[in-house]
Amino acid sequence: MNVLFQRTSIRQYLNQKVEEDKIELLLKAAMQAPSAGNQQPWEFYVTDNEDFIRQLSKVSPYAKCLEKAPLAIIPCYRKKNLKYPEYAHIDMSAACENLWLEATYLGLGCVWLGIAPLQDRMDKVNELLNLSEELESFAIMAIGYPKNQTKQVDRYDVNRIHHIG
């Protein structure tokens, strides 16, 4: 699965819209993620609205790169009626990783902007999205066609592998 070894954080994008069919593939990939007890806690908010994306770029000191992204997907999770609520963040992480890998496969650039578990950031995003109290924002995925190609750094480190015999 070469896409695992191609995925990088892309923070600069071409001024080019992401096609609807690709957006659907991103969301399908995200929802294909495993989840604890198959609870699938996710909800996804999708926007290509420049003004809204600009507002989102201000919710974190690390989200400035979002300002010029042509697309933002905001994964959120339900807080009620979950079989294993303590695993919602893990479920959401799997969904975000799937989305990111699909973006790479489709020739898109993506970066995962952390919101959860920092409640002040979550509150800002919740307010912008006008979320009900039953939903909580988790992350912002900035997506677009990459302005520049970057190579992934090889992170394999044999010294971190411990065999138990």
As a percent range, the share of strand residues is 15-25%
The number of distinct structural domains comes to 1
**Considering the protein shown, what is the CATH homologous superfamily?**
NADH Oxidase
Element-by-element helix/strand order: HEHEHEHEE
Q: Give the overall average pLDDT.
A: 95
Globally, the shape reads globular
> What summary fits the major beta sheet?
5 strands, antiparallel
Task: Describe the protein in words.
- By secondary structure, the chain is an alpha+beta fold.
- The chain has a single domain, classed as NADH Oxidase (3-Layer(aba) Sandwich), CATH 3.40.109.10.
- It has four helices and five strands.
- It has helices at residues 20-31, 50-56, 88-105, 119-129; strands at 42-47, 71-78, 109-114, 135-137, 139-144.
- Strands 1, 2, 3, 4 and 5 form a five-stranded antiparallel sheet that branches.
- α1 (20-31) runs antiparallel to α3.
- The longest helix has 18 residues, at 88-105.
- The chain is globular, with a radius of gyration of 16 Å.
- The mean pLDDT is 95.
Short summary of the structure?
With 165 residues, the protein is α+β, with helices and mostly antiparallel strands. Helix content is 29%, strand content 18%.
Task: Write the topology of this structure.
Elements: H1 20-31, E1 42-47, H2 50-56, E2 71-78, H3 88-105, E3 109-114, H4 119-129, E4 135-137, E5 139-144
Antiparallel strand pairs: 1-2, 2-4, 2-5, 3-5
Helix pairs in contact: 1-3
